[in-house]
Structures are given as C-alpha cells and as structure tokens.
Amino acid sequence: MSERTLVLVKPDGVRRGVVGEVISRIERKGLKLVALELQHLSRETAEAHYAEHVERPFFGELVEFITSAPLVAMVVEGPNAIKAFRQLAGATNPVEAATGSIRGDFALEIGENIVHGSDSPDSAAREIKIFFPELG
Ligand code: RTP
Ligand code: MG
C-alpha cells in the first residue's frame, strides 16, 4: 500500500551539497517526490516538528541547528515509504549507520546527520501538515 513520509535534508546536508545525492537515492529506490521546497524554519516550527524531544537534554541544540540555515523539505510517496526511507537514511548515529546508507556515507556526528525521515504513519501525517499544510 502506498504511503507518504516527510523527508528533510537538514542544514548540514544543504551546506555539504548532498541534496542531489539524497534525491537521487530516493528516486533510485523507486520512491516518488510529491512536494519539495527550500525552507528556513522559524523557532516555532522547529519546536513543533521536534515536540517529542522537548524534555531531552539536546533539544535546545537540535532546534538551534535545524533553524541555523535553510533545509530542503520533501514529501516522498510509495509502498512502505516510511520504512524504506528510514532504511536509506541509516541509524541515527552516523558512526553506527551502515556504509551505503546516507548517514553512513556522509556524516560523522549524531547532531549533524544530514537527513530526517518520519518514523511512523502518525508522525508522517503530523509532520507533513507542519511543512506542507496545503497537502493536509
Ligand atoms: P530524525 O528525527 O532527525 O529523523 O532522526 P531519528 O528519528 O533517527 O532520531 P530521533 O531520536 O528522532 O532524534 C532526532 C534528532 O536529534 C538528534 N539527536 N541528538 N545528542 C544526542 O544524543 C542526540 N540524540 C538525537 C539527532 O540529530 C537526531 O536526528
Ligand atoms: Mg525522529
């Protein structure tokens, strides 16, 4: 069954020039882009997106980082899109992410791990509404 997921190329990925690489891997996997936009997040949007982490010690740094420069937000669609993209991204901590995954290939630190992908259908619906309200 086809589903949608929210993918972000975070500010570090934009700065590093790997937006095309990430899109290319998404397309090679067989997933489709249904929305794409460069966005510079406000503090409010960033806090809403990462609301589940509000009590974590790294929350302040996370919001600071994600608002520091523009990111690329996308809605990606296809069968099992949520899990399929998480698999392409690799483990949260890049030094534990498999070589061949986006984080395994392009990142070194947990705080700058290049991409975000929704982790469940509920998260995907919530996050897509935040970044692309017109898609509902
Ligand atoms: P994301 O939400 O960005 O796709 O990453 P994720 O699901 O793999 O990881 P999550 O647990 O949701 O954490 C969100 C982001 O917070 C940063 N983080 N820092 N310092 C730390 O221990 C720590 N833990 C998580 C990461 O940048 C992670 O992507
Ligand atoms: Mg997450």
TrEMBL record:
Catalysed reactions listed for this entry: a ribonucleoside 5'-diphosphate + ATP = a ribonucleoside 5'-triphosphate + ADP; a 2'-deoxyribonucleoside 5'-diphosphate + ATP = a 2'-deoxyribonucleoside 5'-triphosphate + ADP
Binding site for ATP: K10, F58, R86, T92, R103, N113
Domain Nucleoside diphosphate kinase-like: 2-136
Major enzyme class: transferase
Annotated SMART domains: NDK (SM00562)
Thylakoid in keyword set: no
Active site: H116
Subcellular localization: Cytoplasm
Keywords, sorted A to Z: ATP-binding, Cytoplasm, Kinase, Magnesium, Metal-binding, Nucleotide metabolism, Nucleotide-binding, Phosphoprotein, Transferase
Any Pfam family hit: NDK
Cofactor(s) listed in the protein's UniProt record: Mg(2+)
Enzyme Commission code(s) on record: 2.7.4.6
Chief site of localization: cytoplasm
Superkingdom assignment: Bacteria
Protein's UniProt keywords contain Kinase: yes
InterPro entries in alphabetical order: NDK-like_dom, NDK-like_dom_sf, Nucleoside_diP_kinase, Nucleoside_diP_kinase_AS
GO MF annotation: an example: nucleoside diphosphate kinase activity
General function of this protein: Major role in the synthesis of nucleoside triphosphates other than ATP. The ATP gamma phosphate is transferred to the NDP beta phosphate via a ping-pong mechanism, using a phosphorylated active-site intermediate.
Subunit (UniProt): Homotetramer.
Family the UniProt entry places it in: Belongs to the NDK family.
The protein's name in its UniProt record: Nucleoside diphosphate kinase
Organism name: Actinomadura gamaensis
Record lineage: Bacteria, Bacillati, Actinomycetota, Actinomycetes, Streptosporangiales
